[in-house]
Design brief:
The protein is of the alpha/beta class. It has 15 helices and 11 strands. It has 2 domains: 239 residues, Type I PLP-dependent aspartate aminotransferase-like (Major domain) (Aspartate Aminotransferase, domain 2, 3-Layer(aba) Sandwich), CATH 3.40.640; 129 residues, Aspartate Aminotransferase, domain 1. Helices cover 39% and strands 12% of the residues. Helix 3 packs parallel to helix 4 and helix 10 packs parallel to helix 15.
Length: 391
């Protein structure tokens, strides 16, 4: 593959490239020198830091948000014959975690403007087999949790939030991570705070947290840190055939310093968001809806998306992505709806018209580089490249 024809002295702007400082590098090296690479003291520190940041009663660090979702459903006793309602407009991991339990994912359509799950569609989808609702805080914007919680209470359902995009998000004075029964976070490489790969569950229920911690490490009664600490060896026992979902100290070492910068990075994201809004005003694209303007509510601004309508822009989304690549600017698609993927389409018989809003977004959405790592000059390159690509 040849290099894209952008300015020879300008580096390719990789979509989702993380901001990594010397502090993270030194912390990882410290773990390697200490020869404690797996779950250990730094995971414990990271959990405590995250618990304090979220204001959560209990947290369990794991190796991915998918694992966090899966564990949340397992301790909710979701299994074969059950149904779990979620949105068609999400990454497939949300639905995959449901399938892994043996339950059936029941997809509902999203709102046409925000892409968030439509509470009224949730109500319509409930059956006697429904056990849980999984709202997804897409792009960092909170779902209508008051409406969702009211529906859940009415039908005695668990609410498991997919907050992969929403670490900094607040909803009407409440931090995401303290609202539903359990909340799953992601620290994947493209997220606002990264550990390379990683995830976490937050909950107010001590029993659920304890059960998830056991399930996350083979179903053992104590993890390696407790078995081999300076307090002396502790025997362990397998109480359930669990999973290998634990976070490593090497991952937590990165996250500890990422978390130190989260507030400063959030301010930079706000600056870039406003800059993009101003630059793209008047172009034949649809920019993200403005963040909610209500007290106690914070949009995490995880992704900046453009919607490309061929009739308005003169080109389709994929053509725009190709032109941006040729100009040295990476981009992403968030997301192709779950119902459009072959496995879900074929197994559950979904058609594009079953979820018209999610289908429309799937065909038109484009995410551009949006990270506190971007310099002003690089942000201007993104802007000029979008303008040029649109012709």
């Amino acid at each position: 593959m040849t290099d894209p024809p952008h300015e020879p002295n300008a580096p390719y702007l990789v979509f989702g490239s993380p901001s990594i400082g010397e502090e993270e590098v030194e912390e990882v090296v410290d773990s390697m020198r200490a020869a404690w690479l797996g779950t250990g003291p730094k995971v414990a520190r990271f959990e405590e830091r995250m618990r304090a940041y979220l204001g959560a009663d209990h947290v369990v660090a794991v190796n991915s948000c998918t694992a966090a979702l899966h564990l949340s459903m397992l301790v909710s006793d979701v299994g074969a014959g059950d149904e779990v309602i979620t949105t068609a407009m999400t990454f497939v991991a949300t639905a995959n975690a449901i399938v892994h339990t043996g339950a059936t994912p029941v997809l509902v359509d999203c709102e046409p403007d925000t892409g968030l799950i439509d509470p009224e569609r949730i109500r319509e989808a409930i059956t006697p087999r429904t056990r849980a609702i999984v709202p997804v805080h897409l792009y960092g914007r909170a779902c209508d949790m008051d409406a969702i919680l009211a529906i859940a209470r009415e039908h005695d359902l668990r609410v498991i939030e997919d907050a992969a995009h929403a670490l900094e998000t607040r909803y009407r004075g409440r931090k995401v991570g303290t609202i539903g029964d359990m909340t799953a976070f992601s620290f994947y490489v493209t997220k606002n705070v990264t550990t390379g790969e990683g995830g976490l569950v937050a909950t107010s229920n001590a029993d659920l947290a304890a059960r998830m911690k056991t399930l996350a490490l083979h179903g053992l009664t104590s993890d390696a840190w407790m078995r081999f600490s300076d307090e002396g060896y502790r025997h362990y026992a397998c109480v359930f055939p669990g999973y290998k979902y634990n976070m490593m100290d090497l991952q937590a070492a990165i996250g500890l310093h990422q978390l130190d910068r989260v507030d400063r990075w959030q301010e930079r994201r706000r600056e870039l968001w406003n800059r993009y809004d101003r630059a793209f005003a008047g172009l034949p694209v649809r920019t993200p809806p403005a963040p909610p303007d209500e007290p106690g509510t914070t949009h995490a601004r995880h992704l900046y998306t453009l919607l490309i309508d061929r009739d308005e822009a003169g080109i389709d989304r994929d053509t725009l992505m190709r032109r941006l690549h040729e100009l040295g600017v990476g981009s992403g698609v968030h997301y192709v709806g779950v119902h459009l993927h072959p496995y879900y389409r074929d197994r559950f018989g979904y058609e594009p018209e079953d979820f018209p809003n999610a289908t429309r977004i799937s065909e038109r959405t484009l995410s551009i580089p949006f990270s506190p790592k971007l310099t002003d000059a690089e942000a201007e390159r993104v802007i000029e490249s979008v303008r040029s690509a649109l012709g």
